[in-house]
Amino acid sequence: MAQYPAWDREGRDWPNREASRFVQAAGLRWHVQVMGQGPVLLLLHGTAAATHSWRALMPLLADHFTVVAPDLPGHGFTQPVTGPRLSLPGMAASVGALLQVMQMKPALVAGHSAGAAILLRMALDQRIAPASIISLNGALQPLGDQHAAFFTRTARLLVGLPFVPSLFAWRAADKAVAERLLTDTGSRIEAAGVDYYARLFRHSGHLAAALGMMANWDLVPLLRDLPRLAPRLVLVVGAKDRAVPPAQAERVRARLPTARIVTLPGLGHLAHEEAPDQAAAIIIAEGAA
């Protein structure tokens, strides 16, 4: 199995393929999807995902916005980076450079899981100036909370062992394993959605990027800086999320009292994939605010 997914193989029937383009920016070849007309809406997926995460949501939003959704570095069909560039500031800088090349200035942004953290860092670093940031089950608290340093050290150890991503990919080549991993987040998505994840999970390079993000992730500075956030922050929370405990949203709001929490009953970490119509309604309403 090849180390990275190939556009002419894994991407042969990629969701919204007609909206795809490849863009050179920050020394990388990015896979980006652009769809619709109107104010620019930037979507950033979470760790170990790609643009397929927005497969049903993008067309709903394209009636109201010019929707821009890249694969993050090392994920999906975007070229990989290493070391500091996988950190939160590093990812924020790379996505900022992509927007500059594309001459896109988002009026609104939405990010899932780690994608929400990247958007917050971009806003705090003045790389974007949207009216609102919509966090979809945002991973905004240190992994393991008081045990965060241990998890980060462990991730660094794992990513430093070249056989580890290959071992994970070998296990995830079984579609049933991929389905269990997704179900463990508290979400159930359709079979086609599981297949897109499984296509990516069986490539060691894609998983190495996810591990590399974990190894270089430090949310403490982000939380420290959060009180000076200028855009409105909407925390969309799946009540059944088992990846990011819903209670974390209250802890984020304690640091930023102006943040608004919207709870989606019965949905898990992949709420925007389980119920794209509900996610679209929230984003569209925030764009009209």
From TrEMBL:
Q: Which domain of life is it from?
A: Bacteria
* One Gene Ontology molecular-function label: hydrolase activity
Arranged from A to Z, the UniProt key words for this protein are:
Hydrolase
Please verify whether the record's keywords include Transmembrane.
Answer: no
Q: Which residues form the AB hydrolase-1 domain?
A: 41-281
Hydrolase among the record's keywords? yes
The species this protein belongs to is: Falsiroseomonas algicola
UniProt-listed Pfam families: Abhydrolase_6
User: Transmembrane residues, as ranges?
Assistant: none
Q: What is this protein called?
A: Alpha/beta fold hydrolase
Q: Which InterPro entries match?
A: AB_hydrolase_1, AB_hydrolase_fold, BchO
